[in-house]
Fold these 3 entries.
Entry 1:
Amino acid sequence: MFKIEMLEHTADLKYRVEADTFEELLQGSLKSVIESMTEIEEGRLIDVKKNVCFDAVDELFHDFIRQGLRFVYIDNLLPIAWEDKGSLFGERIEGDYLLLDMSKRKIIFFSEVKAITYQEFKLTKAGDRYLVEFVLDV
Amino acid sequence: MFKRITDYIYEIPKEYKYGMRVDARIYASEELFEKAKEDKAIEQVANVAFLPGIVSYSLAMPDIHWGYGFCIGGVAATDPEKDGVISPAGVGYDINCGVRLVRTNLERKDIQEDKIKRIAHMLFSDVPSGVGKGGDIKVRGEEEKRVMIEGAKWAVRKGYGTKEDLERTEEYGAMEGALPDKVSKTAYDRGASQLGTLGSGNHFLELQVVDKVFAKEIADVMGLFEGQIAVMIHSGSRGFGYQICDDYVKSLRKGAEKYNLPDKQLACALYNSEEGKDYFNAMKCAANYAWANRQILMYLVRKCFEKHFNKSFESLGMNLVYDVAHNIAKMEIHEVNGVKKLLCIHRKGATRAFGPHHKDLPEVYKKIGQPVIIPGDMGRTSYVLVGTEKAMKETFGTTCHGAGRVASRKAAIRNFDADTLLAELKEKGITVISADRRSIVEEAPEAYKDVDKVVDVVDKSGISKIVARMKPLAVIKG
């Protein structure tokens, strides 16, 4: 289970996501990014799955979100969920992005996430809980 | 700890934080300064004072608000000869986000409200807008490189404008030295189909009426008069610029650690280093892309007017007044302690405002100073100012860029409702067209500072002079 909270930020969007596992933390973070841009109906069928794997040590979380945005802006695919295949906190991310093909569907965006920033970025594990705070430039 | 230097300047001495290399100065009235203290913007002005090679002051304009690394409204000059750095955080994600103002011969008294609405709907239909939206113009490979190098000159060469438009564009529509090889493939891909598109968020097209002229002689030079219809275009380098910024914030992030900067987002590199030059030359590609973009947007606007009035844009008097960038870094010569120096000027949410007789101004504006276009929010006013000699002395020839946000998007969504907002704007005679209702709420007038108060500060402090005020008639939101 994950919990998403939108925090105050004058110019853009700041989120705090808490989860029981790192996998759920990624799922929750992806959901917060996508829901910043558009509304996704629950239970939408998936058109495409794309496998990704990152090993870079200090950029894992940012690269994960960057990849999601790359699907939206370059491949015309909207990530609506993340299916984990063994991600490790701070070491590795591996799994499938579950995507909608936007060329086949009418998807209305209300906002454009330009990028994930390093501003006030926090990624921590406290006890059994995982927590991330990040700011999106919109 | 904050010192009030004049009625409109507050100072943060460098003792405020250990590591600040210079004092910081914020141009603000008491009310705007108190507002700025509510979030982390003031801390960000102090953090920028840590940058290696910073000279004079870390500055902020009265539209200051919380940004990334630099606040919005932030200005910093670094000296490359004194190990000065260049920072993508001092430019922002939307590289060369900027504004242009197009005048017309049309007068409000001659155009009925339903006609205004029809033009607005034509603009909405003919000018691509919205998130990630592509346009009709596709540029790939060598052609995309030409856009990066030539900027608005490319657009004019392709028939999207005139030589006179270039004369009335900052940098004449292109910065020299752009190197497309320094741009990632992802950025190329994001830029290929977005030329001639407005984008989303606070970007807009606005039909305006010149509501009041404050300096007639200067307004005459610009071709502005009371009651006149004008069009304001606010857009930038779209996904192309966002990607370049993202790529270089990532690659220059180690600079923030290396120089013990208090904020990770203050990614930077020595200006005189390979990494620093790479960023600057890639940034120029995005800046030039943005000028080409606004040039094409203006072309589309002119086409709409031609179609509607069945007259050429020339006979409608649709000349460009000026085009300014408000997110950019430039190498400029300025005087510091009586010595002329070539400095890297970062302007993030701040506008160049060169005073009269500056060598970089076109002949037509040499006597009056550089026109500065200040967009407000969609329910209130926008302004035309001119740069001053005082700005050259105090702020590296810089002034404010707009109203500046005051409420978060979260608060805007919580507090405002699209139907009520649209009804209130209609009551004021303002038509708003947007593909999505939520963006209207996020951009509600009350989410912004009152631009009247912002320009009052830059006018009274002498770093620019108010020339004319415009009111919106129709707003096309991205």
Note: Chain B touches chain A at residues 39, 41, 65-69, 72, 93-94, 130-132, 186, 189-190, 199-201, 239, 242, 245-246, 249-250, 253, 263-265, 267, 405-411, 435-439, 442 (CB under 8 Å).
Entry 2:
Amino acid sequence: MAHGGGGRAMRDLIERLIVPAFGNPLLAPLEDQARIDLRGLAEIGDRLAFTTDSYVVAPLFFPGGDIGTLAICGTVNDLAMSGAVPLFLSCGLIIEEGLPTADLERVLASMSAQARQCGVSVVTGDTKVVNRGAADKMFINTAGIGVIAAGMDISAKRARPGDAIIVNGTLGDHGVAILVARNELDLHTDLASDCQPLHGLVQAMLAACPDIHCLRDATRGGLATVLNEFALSSKVGMRLHERALPTKPEVRGACEMLGLDVLYMANEGKLVAIVPRADADAVLAAMRAHPAGADAAIVGEVLAEAAGHVILDTLFGGERVVDMLVGEQLPRIC
Amino acid sequence: MKYADEFRDPALAKSLVAAITELADTLAANMPRPLQVMEVCGGHTHTIFRYGLKDLLPPSIEFVHGPGCPVCVLPMGRVDDCVAIAEHPQVIMTTFGDAMRVPGSKKSLLQAKADGADVRTVYSPLDALKLAQKHPDKEVVFFGLGFETTMPSTALTVLQAEATGVRNFSLFCNHITIIPTVKAILDSPDLQIDGFLGPGHVSMVIGTRPYDFIAQRYGKPLVVAGFEPLDILQSLWMVLRQMHEGRCEVENQYRRIVPIEGNSPALDAITRVFELREFFEWRGLGSIDHSGIRMREAYSGFDAERRFSVPNLKIADPKSCQCGEVLKGVIKPQQCKVFGTLCTPETPLGALMVSSEGACAAYHQYSRIAFVKRDAAAAVS
């Protein structure tokens, strides 16, 4: 790959690989910006949701996905957590000189397939090739726009005492799949990343209960971090039940061996919902009926006391505070 | 999960707790203070807090969290030496994950990495050796630390480096041995410990005989304990039963892992490669005779301390720290002058606040739960 400088080689790259991958009428003119008709948006709702995220995963390809599927799902999910219908994405590629063209093609193909599956269009983008060593193979930034229906108010500030805490499935799959895929551990599992879009699931949940209080996808920092953020923003406490947490045996096993805590492990297709107690069973049933929520579970409840804290009832009948991580989770020595 | 869930059964825990409560209440009735049992090993401390075992036990018994967290007791001067080696442009420094955050007087390895040093986390010293084979143009140094638990794998790696002729691998040896330190604690005049939970994984290597003097000479019962919550509770019950029956012995609760005689191939490897230092500095405890391990002359070619010049400065512990008194059970972590104020998990001053296995770091979290509970009680009333 030697396409820096913005000359003809770059134009070739864009026209030959990138435009066909995302092909849609808004991107095709190759103007410096996508032009989006406002009337169509206003029919869906009354507010825009707008978000951005950068993806720097190593390795680029891992069981269950790659950096391309992450870049689409991650941004779609960030939009979906407001209740928005995700519509348009941008795609910024930063490519390290020397990346095999085949790898780029593979990433673009999975971005394209994932975007189609999500019903979103990549309508604008930018590509830079940087010197070897200035990036790690490939970085992707995607920004996204969605539309929020009138009346919807999902916010980290809205957790109320008595609300139920619900997750849509097993925790830590992505974090452990990536650790294993790095091949540094001599660990082998069949585990795949849980990378998946969640907007369909969210719409099904909203149909069961339009008044969902909080929603967030539990990516880096895991369930523990999201609940700490909710507890601080809403000035409430949270109680989790270790017994109720859905986890795969291989994830538990790997965490056990490496001295890592599954509560902090990253997910890429898991959300945390705070739902009024009266609607919790209906939301849970709707989630379990959706493929992205088959293993959904109620894992705890919101407390009036202990504001700003998350407490875990251990399997063993004791309890402990589940704190924010000070830094990255580091494996223990023995 | 097999071999784990069986040792985390809440129903069994309940019956053990009932038995412990009965014994502890009887024993403590004749004492001016609660019974104090020291768990020597940081792994035990971790289990006690992770499963909330303190909540389950009666007020008549307390844990004293021992010095067995190798990351916590590493003195700042040694971290400084390690950073100095890591910052050598030819060096790839490798170590276990939780050694990355241990503060030196100026920076930790994590900060050195952010400043451009090549520092990598490995899960085994053998990974460091592989790295050396992969990068023959670099000097790969393994920052070895830990008790007898991790010593054999380091020793075997040095032996393998020698056998395969890898010349660009060396060891910065900070291994320590626990027995002299337990002895130093036992010799302290203000000691307030009634019994011990002995370290499980150290004992898997050294066996249980090295602890005999604790029971025989110092009259303190000791039970070598496993790391699951039921292991800890059962071991605690065994210590109390000894006291109740007027016995004072070394018992082995962790028989599924620990042979009484230890592991002789592991001990052989240790003896071949390592020897005792005259003394070694422990963070919070000061210098302790014959508690540190260094490489024998025959393996000096693999000794990073001889291959690289290091500042080798002794950095005194901050004066305000009371880690030593906490380790001896004289005060509780929250009674330390700087606990939770100048010394926190984000900015640790003392050894015991450094790693999640350190008593103060664990208490720091626990005291928050106490605060949370007080909150809850106030809300109800």
Note: The first strand of chain B starts at residue 35 and ends at 41.
Entry 3:
Amino acid sequence: MSLTVGSLVYATCICVLFYIVHPRLRLGLLVVSSLAYIFYLDRYAGVALLITSLLAWAFGMLTDRASDHEQYRLSRVLMIIGVALSTAAIILMKYVTPVLQGLDSDCVLARFVIPLGFSYYIFQVISYLVDVQSGRVHADASLIRVIFYLSWFPKFLSGPIERKADMDKRIAQIETVSLIDGARWVSVVHYLLIGCLYKIVMADRIGVYVDKIFELKSGLGSIWLFIGMILYTFQIYCDFAGYSYAAIGLSRAFGIDLSENFKTPYLSQNITEFWRRWHITLSNWLKDYIYIPLGGNRKGQVRKIINTIIVFAVCGMWHGESKNFLVWGLLHGLYSTIDSIAAGKGVKWFRTGVPGRIITFLCVAAAWVFFRAESAMSGIRYFVYMFTSGLRLRTFSTDYLVLFGERSPEIIVIIVSVAVLLIMEIYAYRTDRSVPGIWIDRPYVIRYGVVAIGVLIILIFGLYGAGYDNQRMIYMQF
Amino acid sequence: MRKRDTVRRIICILIYGAVFIAVLVFLNRLLCIKDEHGIRQASELYVQPEDSIDVAFMGSSHVHYDVNTAYLWEQFGIAGYDYSAAEQPLWITYHYLQELCKTQSPSLIVLDMFAPSAFKDDYQYNYLTDNLNGMRFSVNKLRMLSVSCEPDRLWEFWPSISTYHMRYRELTEEDWKPFGRTRYDRMAYKGFFPHYDIDPHEAPQGDRRSADGLTAKSREYLMKIIYYAKEKDIDLFLIVSPYNPDWEDVEVYRQTRDIAMFNGIRFEDYNDLAADIGIDYARDFNDDSHLNYDGSIRFSDYLGRNICDYYDIPDRRGDEYWESWDRHAELVREEAEEKCP
């Protein structure tokens, strides 16, 4: 779901209806409202979702039936066909179509554009089919429940990537969800609030200046380029974590708990820990459906390294056909390999404590430059400028004016908000909770104050209204 | 124990709620756009004494630049108010008229027809904020929003705070001034926004251009305004105030004249009467399209005489209930003495 006033109003209306209609009609209402939302965003995406849901349901049923009749080979073949179709669809739309568009735009295949949310729900389809075949979950005879699993609108655009077994448990509880549940509503409010603060106040604001720095990179000194790299590191986190918190909060309003996607990743002491805390549902998916089937760490150190590199290469390629994503993925593959070898040899100094945190943060930030750049070459050029243009202290203030303008308090807003974010993240890390989670069990006197202040901050410092596109989310394009 | 806790929670919510609302109201007043291209004209209407406005001048910026309400008061005793906004399309004027009639019972509406001749889009966003932000929230405002803005752009303009919350970056001393203004002070504002630059123009040579006529939407809302005025027993006077003729669209004015004649309404294109009015194209314009203070006096003198000749508008001078017009005239005079070149 995009974080716009329109989307939130829509969700609120659906929520009101959810508690008014007969409990047995709730699932139907959520499916219809999710489809209506998707068709409103893009009819093509709606049609693609329906076709995918139908195929996932059919392959799931056939695979399960074959397993029931002890035709394990057939069930495996059916699962492989389903997974292959899903993979082919994603490869076609992410890789073949852009190439064909460059060669022959009239070609039928060149007209396929990746529908909204496609790469997120196609991962869910793959996990569903694999889980059905392996017996971890039974195929769902209800097409409605399969559609719901793939289309649930708070998570549709950018995840979290859920598993069917987990969603089934939540679907089973839908009819018993009660409106009067204070603890749940406290959680809803805080997840939505933190989500909006991260996305609308921080990510969108930082993004304005990151865009300028990346655009003017050839004319800026090393300090500004370094600041640009760090700012983008915060922008992408606030953008995606903010969206994820809001999605979790909104979904919880309907009594449906989504998986946590972020757990203070930038405080990780090493890259292995980082990937346990960053985009958790994607990391788990890659681990369960690529890394482990490839052999994981069970076939020796060399295979483990190769598998790690493959997983991160796939992770990079999943983001898009441009080589900069592959470079980003391979960089993380390299980091993970070094970390894994260091861990094996008992090296601790750069894997733990403050040095570990700083090194991990800088490595992750450096990789994000490739993620943000228009191409791999553009990312390399960014680093070339960063290391060769010098400090340019004489033009530092002029560059500041170019980037932030005269008398602009925006830099103060950014510094203060990043400082507050870091304090919250450190506290959340130490208490092993999510950032919204640290507020939920506070005394109500504190909570109400936090909500009031948070809403005021969003109203005044949020980037919304004419001239701002709040529908834009970095991870929506993947 | 549980009951006591619930009471404490409620008290806590009430205190936080009150503080939240107080801070929000303060920030709203501080950050809101305070220009005189429509917002102040609309917001100060609400502090005018009830049923005090006899003549409301409506339309685009031509109205609050050209129609000098201070002069009309001093010379003719007309209790007038410029209830206009920049580039105001007729569908917004229609809802402004309904808003006006909530607290006022004007005898005459003078409607300038420049905007429908110059701007032909069915949704006009250039000055939409100036047209919307001064009006209080109401069903009427929601209706106005629904005809002024495409649904997918609604949230860019409503709630109003979405158009000005970022102004914390550009606050000036002017933004603090409204806090020192009392309701009594605000009452002296009558919408007129005098300008003092001189932008010389060639006198029009009679080469007035003709383009498309009234758009379907403009025609529809002109008819709605006519019917609404009839329903409320308000006289309607359609005008075109003098401006640089580059923008003219004689076809719109021809159609307006036909509609006016058919409905028994007076229509006057004051461009045709510029010589009678005494408009000096070398001295009386502030910019391409608007009269300056001197021009507004010349035009308002002619317009005031026309109003007195054709309509039965009482002279309110000397009546205590209309004293705010005296203060208004004095403020305008003081400003003009200070700023006139």
Note: Chain B has one domain: 35-162+187-339.
